[in-house]
Amino acid sequence: EGDKKESRGALIVLEGLDRSGKTSQCNRLASFLEGQGTSAELWRFPDRTTNVGQMISAYLSNTSQLDDHTIHLLFSANRWEKRSLMETKLKAGTTLVVDRYSYSGVAFSSAKGLDIEWCKAPEIGLLAPDVVVYLGISPEKAAERGGYGGERYEKLEFQKKVADYYKVLRDDTWKVVDANQSIEDVEKQLQEIVTDCVAECRKGKPLSTLWS
Ligand code: NYM
């Protein structure tokens, strides 16, 4: 009987403050996995390619103004519109390396003063990551790296608040990697974490949903 289930891919999320090095590490990680013969795709939120994503992008670049609750729900909707594709890919055996997810959603909106439980509610039912790697860097160090663009939220005082909310959100699925290290050292640690995680998912670790 063809009852043997295909092994699934892993849902890997990278989180961290702006300028923590997430995007370069996501790129490196996806290439590493491909090099190992693991089917992998690089994803990011916000996904600015959709209609909702374009509204988010206009908001972030200050081209449009939106109420704090409204933009929060748009960020969430942007994840919901990708949920079924995400599940299909994972079940087909593709590992997803995702640059930001629900934790960004809750940390950034809570930092504005919205109630954290209210912020978490629309994320309930999205796929839970198999691992969240938090690239830890102090807000001051991140700011020194420069390259804060002109986007909303890219200000030291605000990033400090975001860092506090990330701490509140930290759970068992999180691994914290010190992002003050060299790019290569961070990369190596990420590779170890992710290799274990991909193996567990292959062995049949079930997919779950937020917040678990
Ligand atoms: N951001 C990102 C949120 O406020 N809520 C979310 O749900 C997500 C995914 O958008 N400063 C914020 C964090 C970033 C900004 O992200 C754009 P990026 O990674 O710079 O494109």
From TrEMBL:
Domain of life from the UniProt record: Eukaryota
EC number assigned by the record: 2.7.4.9
Coiled coil: none
Keyword hit for Glycoprotein: no
Domain called Thymidylate kinase-like: residue spans: 14-189
Single GO biological process annotation from the record: nucleotide biosynthetic process
Enzyme class, first EC level, given as a word: transferase
GO MF annotation terms: ATP binding; dTMP kinase activity
Metabolic or biological pathway: Pyrimidine metabolism; dTTP biosynthesis
Protein keywords: ATP-binding, Kinase, Nucleotide biosynthesis, Nucleotide-binding, Transferase
Family: Belongs to the thymidylate kinase family.
Name assigned to this protein: Thymidylate kinase
